[in-house]
Specification:
The complex is a heterodimer of chains A (260) and B (254).
Chain A lengths: L1 E12 L2 E13 L4 E5 L6 H8 L7 E6 L2 E2 L7 E4 L3 H4 L6 H11 L4 H14 L15 H14 L4 E5 L7 H18 L2 E6 L2 H7 L2 E5 L4 E8 L8 H6 L1 H24 L1
Parallel strand pairs in A: 2-10, 3-8, 3-9, 6-7, 7-8
Antiparallel strand pairs in A: 1-2, 1-4, 4-5, 9-10
Helix pairs in contact in A: 3-4, 3-5, 4-5, 7-9
Chain B lengths: L1 H20 L11 H11 L2 H35 L1 H16 L5 H9 L3 H25 L3 H9 L4 H38 L5 H10 L3 H29 L1 H12 L1
The chains are: A alpha/beta (260), B mainly alpha (254).
């Protein structure tokens, strides 16, 4: 379970102060898949780095599984947007997935199983000894996902993971995320700027305002749990939900325009 | 085949030109190449190679390796720590600007004229390109790679050994390549100042005793040695940085 309460972040450089996050409160229950959407420049990256323990908030708290986050929490795995920069190009696919496990001092045979299972789960069997840069963008992001699930996290944090891949690959990867989430019963917080993607993937969608960020609105996606690209996206309810989210994001942008 | 032709083409032409142009030379100081080559075979016998070339190479190897270890270790410390960097950078720039050969007499004063002096001279000259390139390489490590390491709990020695060092390795290799040519120069210079054996010493001996063809043969041997070492370096680098060259090629294609 992930709890974000009254989170605030102000960047200071000299006399200048920029308030990136004003007051953010939301929770993601254990085993839930929640999508965060917001207009561009809404402080998503700041929020994410605070949750991952990579950045200290100015005020407020992040709690993961009941424990306050003060550094990178062990139960959290992250998939970055820039897969090309997040995978280590000097290591093979296998070593990339295995490195965090080595650091955890997991026994060798157990590591081998975890790495193999994770690569099988993302459909990358047979690429173990390739370097990441020998693979296509979509496959590289699969490696990053494999690294995250091999880490056996309670919570998976995904930062616009499919922003840089083409539309068809993206649809495949979306289905992969839903399948993995259902199978592994992890908590997933998925950050995106794509409204359709948020509604298609999430059980809930949390909408953020423009910076300084607050929670603009929140909806429960009452679509059936078995989703597929063809029928879910054609569902009238899908259209209603995405219209609602779209309107809220537009309102958030106007709100920012009015206040500035 | 074509590559070999490109690599060997110009050297062969130059050598042939030297050979032909110097063929009838009467000059005492620029004897015909045929004479130089003849003395090459006579001069650089196995005895002489073990007596003079091996000590030179040992000093070179010791100084170079020491400089590499010191340069990389210090470079990582400085590169990772903003305060240390701000404090040391001006001083480092100053030391780097001092031409290492002028330090030979100074170093001789306290280190004597033995092997220690020569190794110190080589270390002192070689450490700067390694150090400064390592600092640059460490500073330029991608922030996403650092974030990834932190998020996955890769900390301490593992972060340095498995993430920062490999990420900086292309830049470190550039520093090591520069250092290699400096090391060869300093090896010869330190032996020319004060030594009882070594390549630099032998060449100076030949020159002072007017053994001109032998002197030229020593210079040719030195050139060949430098060429061989840089070839070795490139082979080692190509192996160690295979991922980097592959990555670059992949980026160019996309």
């Amino acid at each position: 379970m992930l709890e974000v309460s009254s989170l605030n972040k102000v960047y200071r450089s000299g006399a200048r102060e920029v308030e990136a996050l004003r007051d953010l409160t939301f929770t993601v229950d254990s085993g839930e898949l929640v999508c965060l959407v917001g207009p561009s420049g809404c402080g998503k990256t700041t929020l994410l780095r605070c949750i991952a323990g990579l950045l200290e908030p100015s005020a407020g708290k992040v709690r993961l599984d009941g424990r306050e986050v003060s550094g990178p929490p062990p139960g959290l795995a992250m998939v970055f947007q820039e897969y090309g920069r997040s995978l280590f190009p000097w290591m093979s696919v296998r070593d990339n997935v295995e490195l965090p496990l080595k650091q955890r001092k997991i026994a060798r045979h157990r590591r081998t199983t975890l790495v193999q299972d994770a690569l099988d789960a993302v459909g990358l069997t047979g690429t173990e000894s390739a370097y990441p840069w020998q693979l296509s963008g979509g496959m590289q992001q699969r490696v990053a996902i494999a690294r995250a699930i091999a880490y056996e996290p309670s919570t998976l944090l995904m930062d616009e993971p499919f922003a840089a891949v083409d539309a068809q690959t993206r649809a495949d990867l979306e289905d992969l995320v839903r399948a993995l989430w259902q199978r592994l019963e992890v908590t997933v917080l998925f950050i995106t700027h794509d409204i359709d993607e948020a509604v298609y993937l999430g059980q809930r969608v949390v909408m953020l305002s423009s910076s300084p960020t607050v929670v603009q609105d929140e909806i429960t996606v009452d679509l059936p749990p078995a989703r597929d690209q063809l029928h879910t996206r054609a569902d009238p309810r899908f259209t209603e939900l995405r219209t609602h989210v779209y309107e809220q994001i537009q309102a958030a942008k106007r709100g920012a325009g009015a206040s500035s | 085949m074509k590559r070999v032709a490109y690599v060997l083409g110009l050297p062969v032409v130059l050598f042939a030109a030297w050979y032909l142009l110097s063929a009838g030379s009467e000059s005492f100081y620029a004897p015909p190449l045929s004479k130089i080559l003849e003395s090459f075979g006579k001069t650089w016998t196995l005895d002489r190679l073990t007596a003079d070339v091996v000590p030179s190479l040992l000093r070179l190897g010791a100084g170079y390796l020491l400089a590499a270890v010191i340069g990389v270790a210090l470079g990582i410390t400085i590169g990772l720590n903003r305060w240390v960097r701000a404090t040391l950078e001006p001083v480092l720039e100053f030391f780097r600007a001092v031409p290492p050969p002028v330090l030979v007499p100074v170093i001789m004063l306290f280190a004597g004229i033995g092997d220690g002096m020569k190794v110190i001279v080589i270390v002192f000259g070689c450490v700067w390109p390694v150090l400064l390139n390592t600092v640059e390489g460490v500073r330029a490590v991608d922030s996403v790679q650092i974030d990834t390491a932190r998020a996955y709990g890769i900390s301490g020695p593992a972060r340095i050994g498995r993430v920062i060092l490999p990420a900086a390795s292309p830049q470190i290799a550039a520093g090591l390549r520069q250092a290699l040519s400096i090391a060869i120069i300093l090896m010869v210079i330190s032996e020319m100042f004060a030594a009882s054996n070594g390549l630099g010493f032998t060449i100076v001996q030949f020159q002072r005793s007017f053994a001109i063809p032998e002197m030229w043969s020593g210079i040719i041997l030195l050139g060949l040695l430098g060429f061989g070492l840089s070839l070795l370096f490139r082979l080692a680098e190509g192996r160690a940085l295979r991922w980097y060259h592959g990555l670059r090629a992949a980026q160019r294609r996309s």
